[in-house]
Amino acid sequence: MRRAAVAVAAGAMAVSLAACGSADEAGDNDSTKASAAKGDDIKVGLLLPENQTARYEKFDRPLIEEKIGELTNGKGEVVYANAKQDASQQAQQVESMITNKVDVIILDAVDAAAIKSSVQKAKDADIPVVAYDRLAQGPIDAYTSFDNVTVGKTQGEALLEALGDKAKDGQIVMMNGSSTDPNAAQFKEGAHSVLDGKVNVGKEYDTKEWKPENANANMEGAISAIGKDKIIGVYSANDGMAGGIITALKAAGIKVPVTGQDAELAGVQRIVSGEQYMSVYKPYAPEADAAAEMAVALAQGKSLDSIAKDKVDSPTNKGIPSVLVDVTSLTKDNIKDTVVKDGVYTVAEICTAKYKAACEKIGLE
């Protein structure tokens, strides 16, 4: 997948580019020794956090499976499990992967802190762990994600652009992600760094489990507390929640700019129709490819030096080899040059009968 030319340069995340420290600081990467003799015949455990967000089953899983097959000449096996937003279930899934003697685990944690002991168990079993999309705690061997602080900044900047000189004429609502997701804290940090002092935040929520229905209930509460005539915009941390938020806004007769993230098809269609102002397009192929490349290298006992150019610190470990991927602010003006150009969606998929006229209006035909 080609990255869009308008990609926002990653760089706001706390990334250490210093030389590698001790083995303990870098997550004790000697776990690769046990698998040094492995060839293409490897077993990769893939643990994704939930299936409510469309990206995981539509993009992440197939992209990772495809890349692992490519890197192992079709001999690598992927053992897949989805935790369905249940941290306890994910811990059991890690145990199962250890029992099944996978050679490496790619882990997108439901709860980054709660999974720490499970990561340690994998480490004790000489199974390297690649943290995917969310930086899990514990002795992680590698990590790939997007620059999450930059994601939040991108959302905040877009909301300010949409509000223009009316930014202080009322109040905005901030609908952050789940408090158990470290990415959500970074999105929030980035957004606040842009919005603080430039808008008035009337209500702010950490949305349980990222669920659209929880965002909908929060938004209804915000409307009651603030008053529908005083709300001028909504910061929504992702597209799924934006859908729930917009439903509540419509019911109250409110039309204001709403942000999003993930470039989900429904979110893109809402951008086309003008219901949602923007999303953050995160090209999943580079992230998935990086995870697969690092996992295969670790399983085969190879160095990550040629793959992971950055170092990231978690609350428990320092200098984790990492790959950070750029993001793009997606609006109606660049749909054709991003998600369509990159083959994420076709024009036909976006411009169904319901959205045909709106698509034609913005030149998406």
Number of beta strands: 13
Q: Briefly note the structural class of the backbone.
A: alpha/beta
Mean pLDDT, all residues: 91
The Rg value, from CA coordinates, equals 21 Å
What are the key terms here?
alpha/beta, 3-stranded parallel beta sheet, 365 residues, disordered N terminus, 13 strands, 8-stranded mixed beta sheet, 12 helices, 16% strand
What does this structure look like?
The protein is α/β, with parallel strands linked by helices and 365 residues long. Helices cover 38% and strands 16% of the residues. The protein has 12 helices and 13 strands. It has helices at 55-71, 87-99, 116-124, 148-163, 182-195, 212-226, 239-251, 265-273, 284-299, 336-340, 347-350, 356-361, and strands at 15-16, 43-48, 77-82, 104-107, 129-132, 142-146, 171-176, 201-206, 231-236, 279-281, 310-312, 320-325, 328-330. The strands form 3 sheets. It has an 8-stranded mixed sheet, sandwiched between helices. Strand 2, helix 1 (55-71) and strand 3 form a beta-alpha-beta unit. Helix 2 packs parallel to helix 3 and helix 6 (212-226) crosses helix 7.
